[in-house]
Amino acid sequence: MRGRFCKTVCGWLGLSLVMLSAGAFADDRLPTLNSEQANWVADRIFQNECNRQLSCLTSWNVGEDFPSLGIGHFIWYREGQRERFVESFPELLGYYVARGVDLPPWLAGLPGWASPWPDRETFLAEIDSEQMQSLRQFLSDTRGIQADFIMRRLEHSLPALTAASDQPAAIATEFYRVANSHVPHGMYALIDYVNFKGEGTATSERYRGQGWGLLQVLETMLATPDDGSVLEQFAAAAQQVLARRIDNSPAERGEERWRSGWNNRTRTYVP
């Protein structure tokens, strides 16, 4: 399964990275990865999000009121549901359609592409249903397109990051500094963090007015004296931002239980 995944994703990542290199800031460039490097990045994402397990492609975490699907754990809300986290699964479905990929008929026919499960109990009761199995297989077969979708999220994140900051030029410089560090590790760090905790520009994704996305990590790097390599600085800033999120989070969410895993993940950003 790993070989087929990497072979498929490699092509999409390579294409996306070439596109990314023509960014909005003419004086800067994102690195172009060769097939081996793109293979490595894709494998890391699948490892981080799913431990390469098919079963995790359809999951609903304890303490959350929504399922998360695919290698990017894309969030999916019910019709009319409003949460602080940015929903991404319907956007992925739209990307499939734009790429000419046929959705499973039952999925394509959902009104407004809204999640059909009213709660976690119903979701788990149907975890081995024919529809759920077909969904997992579809998500497994299209991992390459999901990886390309993640790449496009990164591509579109920089203008939003700079627009949301009072230091736009410095944020752009820091972004490219990370991206070009120890290629392909810098690209992996940026892609994985955006996939993991978002861009940090959505005002709905705040605890006590403070976000936890890529923007906040880059701002923390700017406010911290250089100490160690660029990717060591990035990982340390990410851990600081995530620690602040845990400290600011509502007690009922119990986010302390995630601290160790989050820190372990950010440590993988350092070669």
From TrEMBL:
The keyword Signal applies. Residues 261-271 have a biased composition (Polar residues). Residues 250-271 are annotated as: Disordered. Residues 1-26 form the signal peptide. Keywords: Signal. Residues 250-259 have a biased composition (Basic and acidic residues). This is Uncharacterized protein. It comes from Pseudohongiella acticola.
